Amino acid sequence: MHSESAASSPPRINLVDPELYAHGDPFEQWRWLRANEPVYWHPPTELPGFWALTRYDDVRAAYRDAETFSSARGILLRPADHGEDPGGGRTLALTDPPRHRQLRGLVDEWFALRSVRGFEPEMTEVARRVVDEALERGSCDFVADIAARVPLYVICNMMGVPSSDWDRLFTLTSQAFGAGDPATQRFAHLEIMGYFEELQAEKADDPSDDLVSILATATIDGSPLSPEDVILNCDNLLVGGTENTRIAAAGGMLAFLEHPGQWQALVEDPGLLPSAVEEVLRWTSTATHILRTAVRPVEIGGRRIEAGDRVTFWLPSANRDESVFDAPDTFDIRRKPNRHLALGFGEHFCLGSVLARAELRILYHELLHRSIRVEPDGEATRLRSIVVNGPERLPVKLTEGAAARP
Ligand code: HEM
């Protein structure tokens, strides 16, 4: 039920202040919106105005209707003076059907269950190496030293990036999507695009069995993808493949540190790992908002949305909707059912969902089966972003075989 009590003292609503996610409590605003204004017109700030959907059912219904809610004009809020997203109409995430299906059809086999199973031995090896290195150091940042490395190395491997370049791409992605200054971020992002420009040219001339070769040699309706389209899609895969998994894996670890009984339950029954991974996904909901643009007038919850309006889905809010989840603010690794929307829904449902789930499972399994004790070793900080939310740094100390609890 959407509780009445949440109506008593309306908080000031501003969902687009990055400080809210670094130091504030966005759940207070989301709870109030779900109860009182579930289809909320968010006035313009430095960003143009937009509709904010915060209830599970509204988000799911809009997700289901890709005919009305287009991705081609961008899936993240951006200031009007930044212009349209350069990937609009070109990358997997930023195209509408029918082109979206055609693009996705080029690569989706690589992300299917069978294919991901084939990568599991390599993923386990990567997780082991990363955890070994962290153990040697004793103290480390769980985000940068553990959670970030597993997904980055795995997606680089799938894309056909030579292993000698993985550390370079690791540094560049950390700079491009880390907390540094905007100039460093832009420079690192350009370097990544430059890297893929060279790689796609090499793979176009001499293709092998990897994702970049597939994109570089693909045709849609008889026409090859342009080099720019290949580069933008490589960027989409690299960012999609690393950012959310890093934050979810670290956010999940933080949740276990805050709820040691839940880790203990996993130690006692590792069979709970798959449902624990689902709860980590729901709990962390690292993709904060997803944007669509209405291409025709539509009504949601009695509010009329016009063609051209921006409509945002606030996934962490939908995943704590009290009308869908029992005790939504409880971290419960046994939760069933757990039909969260952390990986999206419908047409653009996360391409890497099977991979992401496997990466989280394998990483936690590595810690569990070696009885590695993980303890906080300093203050965790949160990302200052309206796009992704979760830990920016999570200083921890790792000790092997010391105890089962984190
Ligand atoms: C915990 C980890 C992850 C989370 C929370 C996550 C979340 C999401 C969400 C919410 C969407 C939907 C975007 C939309 O509705 O427009 C999405 C799409 C996507 N994700 Fe993930 N993701 C994760 C891991 C991955 C991984 C490992 C990959 C690997 C390549 C990946 C690649 C993609 C791609 C390419 C899309 C666009 C799919 C499309 O538009 O058809 N993601 N992801």
From TrEMBL:
Signal peptide: none annotated. InterPro entries: Cyt_P450, Cyt_P450_B, Cyt_P450_sf. Pfam families: p450 (PF00067). Coiled coil: none annotated. Belongs to the cytochrome P450 family. PANTHER family: BIOTIN BIOSYNTHESIS CYTOCHROME P450, P450, PUTATIVE (EUROFUNG)-RELATED. This is Cytochrome P450. It comes from Streptomyces coeruleoprunus.
